[in-house]
Amino acid sequence: MQKSESRYLRVKRYVLDGIKSGEWMAGDQVPSENELVTLCQVSRMTARRALEELNSEGILTRVRGKGSFVAEEKHQSSLLEIKNIKTEIQNAGHNHKAHLVEMSELPATVELAELFEINPKDPVFHSIILHYEDDQPIQLEERYINPVTAPNYLEQDFKQSTPNEYLTSVAPLTEAEHIIEAIVAEKQVHNLLHLDQDEAVLLMTRITWSFNKAVSYARLYHPGKRYRLGSRFTPVSS
Amino acid sequence: MQKSESRYLRVKRYVLDGIKSGEWMAGDQVPSENELVTLCQVSRMTARRALEELNSEGILTRVRGKGSFVAEEKHQSSLLEIKNIKTEIQNAGHNHKAHLVEMSELPATVELAELFEINPKDPVFHSIILHYEDDQPIQLEERYINPVTAPNYLEQDFKQSTPNEYLTSVAPLTEAEHIIEAIVAEKQVHNLLHLDQDEAVLLMTRITWSFNKAVSYARLYHPGKRYRLGSRFTPVSS
DNA sequence: CAAACTTTCTTGTATATACAATGGTGATTT
DNA sequence: AAATCACCATTGTATATACAAGAAAGTTTG
């Protein structure tokens, strides 16, 4: 336990307080390295370290020859959140409907067993759900579930709630991984999604964890013409 | 134009190369600050800066009194950062090459004029660059540039640096927006990317801002079979 | 033998200095 | 009036130095 905070942390807090209090708004210039030297009674290198860290944290934007500025507001990006497709559709003012295509218990493949930390051929839950937006198919959700973390999965009524809602209720989402690719879907997916001839599919593979335990492996197929993924963000420089 | 790479970047690359080559695996100890001083012929503060940055990037874990260690595997979140395709390819151990397909000045469309806050039919810069990974086309980059924020765009040699590098040097990136969709590409794109019959294309539309001024509107086409976008993240609750 | 101390190696904090590179301003020159 | 130049403020890179603090291993001492 150190009785006195580091000096560079004092400088950081000084700048952060100014931003929080509204003294410096987004886009405003904050004190330069040399100004902080006299304001906070530290060396330039110490002041510099504080500003650099705030820069790498995305709080400030620094430009050589000009100065350091408060970065613009951060926007949430829908790519980063696990959004519930039901509320996503309803928020856009449309009607959501779900159709259960399949619900079963399958023996785990080697890959799934490794992911879920179970033995190969142990049972895993499997579901295929087709989501509609105003009677038009918008997402085909194929999902494999870890029976350890979500033992009652098969008993859920997914016309009422989505798998997402159930899973987040039994196992809080602590981590997720997305892989996005463009494919030409196989026939079954093509038919279920009512795709046109030659329409591409946006496939998002999503793995979710809860406290270092993998909960679910999902493949979400979207019609390329009818679905877009958007994200808006403020970068953090390294 | 700097003729020689910064020293701290050389040290960073030295460590990164050792990790990429497998010399140091996850959990292994990398050279200490003082060892890097003699290995790379730099001062301790410079070696330190390299290790610190690798630490803040999550590549290394540093422990006082013990040393610096290669962090456990972490997936890059390329969706969240504006990554330079050149370094992205090189970091994966491949060779990057760029071919300038077109470089011109065009009259702005109504949409571009609105985005760039200029008058319609005012000139904007336009470039089409094809990026190769080991002689295989991996990204077709079509880009419209705001001439106000990047007036010297046409004079750049994009065989040396990428548009990304130039743009971030003249106008620090403060915000970005991505839209991702799956399409079946038109013939020209199809041919340039050497696509197979019926191969889908992952199209990322990216708009970047610098201090509330739009700098660039880019369309990045990727072969669906050869390119994946990945992201891994921890949801923040605050 | 075991506890206490010392040494050594490591990263962490703090400072002083020097020069480079960029952007803006204002004076000077053309 | 326009172009050029000099100057200044700002961030960026690089080095040298000093001391602090934690971890580990060896050495001394009881």
In short:
Two copies of one chain form a homodimer. Chain A starts with 6 loop residues before the first helix and ends in a 5-residue tail after the last strand. In chain A, about 35% of the residues are buried.
What is the fold's blueprint, element by element?
The structure is a homodimer of 238-residue chains.
Chain A: H1 7-20, E1 29-30, H2 33-40, H3 44-56, E2 60-63, E3 67-70, H4 85-91, E4 96-107, H5 110-116, E5 123-133, E6 136-145, H6 163-170, E7 175-183, H7 187-192, E8 201-210, E9 213-223, E10 229-233
Antiparallel strand pairs in A: 1-3, 2-3, 4-5, 5-6, 6-9, 7-8, 8-9
The structure holds a DNA duplex (30 and 30 nucleotides).
Explain what this protein looks like in three dimensions.
2 copies of one chain form a homodimer. By secondary structure, chain A is α+β, with helices and mostly antiparallel strands. In chain A, 26% of the residues lie in helices and 33% in strands. Chain A has 7 helices and 10 strands. Chain A has helices at residues 7-20, 33-40, 44-56, 85-91, 110-116, 163-170, 187-192; strands at 29-30, 60-63, 67-70, 96-107, 123-133, 136-145, 175-183, 201-210, 213-223, 229-233. In chain A, the strands form 2 sheets. In chain A, strands 4-5-6-9-8-7 form a 6-stranded antiparallel beta sheet. In chain A, strands 1-3-2 form a 3-stranded antiparallel beta sheet, with helices on one face. In chain A, a hairpin with a 2-residue loop joins strand 5 and strand 6 (136-145). In chain A, helix 1 packs across helix 3 (44-56). Chain A is elongated, with a radius of gyration of 24 Å. The A-B interface holds A 27, 56, 61-63, 69, 71-72, 75, 77, 79-82, 173-184, 198-203, 222, 224-225, 227-238 and B 53, 56-57, 75, 79-82, 172-184, 198-203, 209, 211-212, 222, 224-225, 227-235. Strand 7 (175-183) of chain A pairs antiparallel with strand 10 of chain B. Chain A binds a DNA duplex (30 and 30 nucleotides) through helix 3.
